[in-house]
């Protein structure tokens, strides 16, 4: 065994000083060490760990490995494994988050923010008795989910007793590159330090060889240590000259791998096979490796490799680790393809209870098409999708397609990969997959149509062409024009072990598998290791609506895409053809698709009972794919049942935007914004809309981008920013109308109606409103027709069109709108009250509207009804009777932050003889966090300093202050102290 040398003791004065200062701070900081392979990052991490341990810190170590780079949360589990016993001390909410992430219970995967906050709480708990240092080596190989959480945590350590140090290779891209953590660059040793290290370890070198090694090593400590032994083992030419590999433009890490390769080649085949299995399974390297092997392959009888300086062996525990990640790379590169496949087959058996890792090893062990292996990969992709790993799912589905035995299955899986890629915002990748499917046959497959139409629809807003493609594909499946895939003797749901024979052939001990270092009975579970092959199957409640036949899975995707296209087209004839086509499919259309058909089309014609069906479908969200949740929540919005599910959407949206189905994340942001608008949380709605617009434009989703602009325009109109509203209205209409995107053109008309009402231009409001639907009827499949019921009635009344107003209110009652949704009930009762000529009827309808349970959930609509009621009371029963309703309306408009409507209500109050409250900005109570941020800002701290104290980013601090200023009625930080001092005691959080 080669002795290790503390490289940090030679040179590195600058780095050692920086690390000593870091440790002296006793936590509250994060630091990234970035440098080339072999430059000494691991040695510096060992040094900082030793310094921290010497000061009484608890040190937790982890190391990223390529084998787990696609397994969600695998890296995080390494870090937190020693802290798992402390989970029981957390509150129930945070404990449930970890249970889901680490596979101990089912449930929707948390967002990065939710998980990050839970991790911060766990770390704070662990550091309550002694400072804690987290040390991560080879962070470039951490999986995406873990990297996001570590970056989130690292930015919020200030003020805590927790420190984080990360080592990264400079030449390998990493999620930490955008984590905005402080960096300490690690370069080569100085010339003097290089000479000292070389002389310390190899004083016998002749001057010529010494100069050559120094020149080739270029200050890289690993090269200074490894090149001399290479020569001493016989690396000289026949003429006695040094055989140090000359620098010919080949990067130094690759030349070091060549040196390691020579040592590997000298080992026996049995030892090389053991090293290969360890390397392919991600056995760690260096001191951090001891914390990474809970589910790793255990290498046996490898003393010879340790003697050659390839491995480090702990003399007490016998645990084995590669001496450096470059050794691991060299082992893999040295092996033949057949050797690598045999090793992967053996590892598939070792991990037979881990659906994701097992499938990956099976795929790597297989050359020829194998339906069982393809099915295993498909199951792994399903698992990754549910866990928020759509990016990994695309790769696994693509490989599953390559291993499919029939053209039909290959096409279906490529279509699935393209479908998930499109939802993940990888439209270019989706198109590549579609093209790769097209060359495999002469006919365009239905699965390819899904991806192609998806891109044409969402990227370009082409409702006409995409509809033609989808309808033709559905008719082809219905009429038998597309043969069913040949599933052979198995399917994705086959209970038998895929490719079990290959695993046994590759490993003679397969019936008595080699033990891993700490199996599932002795270690806390890895996120996916302690269950059987159905461990990541969707929860039964989530799978009951899914088609059982693969061909019907493609059909369901086509049906749902057709329904989305029809929704955006928002045209009666198109919808009628869609209904007829779906009717011809009978029970092949799933129950959820039937919900979409009724909710997304015309709630006036088909909405009765939909709310109850949606609520039943959303009763259990565990295990549901993100796009399934999104579609059901869109249906919930159409029947005004979205409120209870907004918190779930907010938890999931960050995950999907970062590592999952970003297109679903875009729609989730739309839904969150709409519910915030409905609830009167207009500041939050505007922030959500801006985030959505940035996301949709950066991913070139033109349809979603204009959809977001439409909602921002509607919000601007509500708030009295009518010039901005009309700018957005014009932009949306100019894009949508030529394309026939009726959903957006109706929204543009709704913006015009709302802006005109806000400005008091009732004639213009009426003209916009009847552009959506004429009075006395509801244009079929015009989704804005019932939503603008009150707008049309109010505009008609103010322009003397009382007959049209009354006819429209009565049409709402005849259509049964109160039974469709609570909001439509509120609007219907309000419209009937406003248009009633009989005072008793008017009073009854106003009472029904103002006492309706949904009133609090829709404060703007309720305030408008109260304003109209107050005006009527002033004219019919005198000022005293009018004041209560007018006061409530004025207060509501003020809280909402719509100055024109608030001033209108105050004018009516003055006409009723009341002293109207002075105009003021939105004065909703400050939340606890807003109050804390405001007080720190009032004390003179900058946003960065506030963020350090509150574990928030400076941008989040700025967002809080953006909300605080209008609530306090101020416009600058200088006014904060006085404004906070004037707050009534009862408003203090």
UniProtKB/TrEMBL annotation:
Keywords: ATP-binding, Nucleotide-binding. GO terms for biological process: regulation of DNA-templated transcription. GO terms for molecular function: adenylate cyclase activity; ATP binding; DNA binding. Residues 476-551 are annotated as: Disordered. InterPro entries: AAA_16, P-loop_NTPase, Sig_transdc_resp-reg_C-effctor, Tscrpt_reg_LuxR_C, WH-like_DNA-bd_sf. SUPFAM superfamilies: C-terminal effector domain of the bipartite response regulators (SSF46894), P-loop containing nucleoside triphosphate hydrolases (SSF52540). Residues 494-507 have a biased composition (Basic and acidic residues). Residues 919-984 form the HTH luxR-type domain. One of its GO terms (cellular component) is cytoplasm. This is LuxR family transcriptional regulator. It comes from Streptomyces longispororuber.
